[in-house]
């Protein structure tokens, strides 16, 4: 069973890398989507969502 975990391939906290691994896509695409969301919306909702994801999504090392 596939689980959503924060990736060890990280730039900031591994959230985008973990989401990319879960959906089997390139992490750069997920990072680009996050950057576009930051620009297109008010910054606060995206930053708050990212911070929540850091605390909710377990690290890869904690699961294995």
Question: How would you characterize the overall build of this protein?
Answer:
This protein has helices spanning 15-23, 27-40, 43-56, 60-63. The mean pLDDT is 88. Helix 1 (15-23) crosses helix 2 and helix 2 crosses helix 3. With 64 residues, the protein is mainly alpha-helical. It contains four helices and no strands. The chain is globular, with a radius of gyration of 12 Å.
Topology at a glance:
Blueprint: H1 15-23, H2 27-40, H3 43-56, H4 60-63
Q: Quaternary state, please?
A: single chain
Could you give a short account of the major beta sheet?
A: none
Tell me the series of helices and strands, N- to C-terminal. HHHH
Structural class category: mainly alpha
Instruction: State the distance separating the first and last CA atoms.
Output: 13 Å
**Beta-strand content estimate:** under 5%
Low-confidence stretches: none
Count of helix runs: 4
Relative helix content: 55-70%
Number of strands: 0
Shape estimate = globular
Overall pLDDT metric: 88
Cα Rg = 12 Å
Q: What would the keywords be for this entry?
A:
64 residues; mainly alpha; 4 helices; 64% helix; 0% strand; globular
Q: What is this structure, in a nutshell?
A:
The protein has helices at residues 15-23, 27-40, 43-56, 60-63. With 64 residues, it is an all-alpha fold. Helix 2 (27-40) packs across helix 3 (43-56).
């Amino acid at each position: 069973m596939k689980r959503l975990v924060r990736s060890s391939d990280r730039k900031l906290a591994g959230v985008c890398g973990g989401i990319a691994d879960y959906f089997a896509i390139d992490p750069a695409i997920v990072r680009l989507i996050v950057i576009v969301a930051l620009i297109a919306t008010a910054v606060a909702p995206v930053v708050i969502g990212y911070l929540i994801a850091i605390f909710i999504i377990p690290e890869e090392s904690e699961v294995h």
